[in-house]
Amino acid sequence: MTHRTLITATLCALALALAGCKPSGSDAAPADTAPAETAVAPAQGDAAPTDVLREVDNSPAPEGLDVRAFAGSFSGTLPCADCPGIDSTVELKGDGSYAVHDVYRERGARSDTTGTWTVEQAGKRIRLDPNSKDEQDRLYEVVSNDELRMLDGDGKAIESGLDYGLRRVMPAR
Fold first, then answer.
1. If both were cysteines, with which of 48, 62, 67, 172 could 41 make a disulfide (CB 3.0 to 4.6 Å apart)?
2. What is the CATH number of domain 37-170?
3. What pLDDT, in 10s, does the model give residues 130-140?
4. What is the H or E stretch that residue 100 is in?
5. For the region Disordered, what residue ranges are annotated (predicted)?
């Protein structure tokens, strides 16, 4: 009887240890449902033009991004081939939609894009899928909880000394 109790206790301990290793619900979806990477975050408020940058959390992006806490606005100036830069704001909304607002410096040209966003590669990449199929998907690396970095069309880092980063902005209070 003692031998049987020891085996039962060992199996229970093993089951608990393995349960702690299971992927979270956002990473594991049945095959007949949408991929786990389509989970989106709840809204944390729309960004206003008076938004201010907060101190950046440079800790590495967590394994399996907590998308429920990730929605928000990211802003920065991206390189431009024929102007001083593109002031870009990406608003990731909690309902799975997004809006991108790009303003080309010195030209005054503005581009607004909307669509849906998804998380890929265990929370290490964000894909923006535009409503207009005339436009290409945009890919961003999740550098940290407070920073995205634009990737090329193949999802690879852009080899350049220029800054392709967007930082989280917090609504002004």
1. 67
2. 2.40.128.640
3. 999 899 999 99
4. strand 97-104
5. 26-47
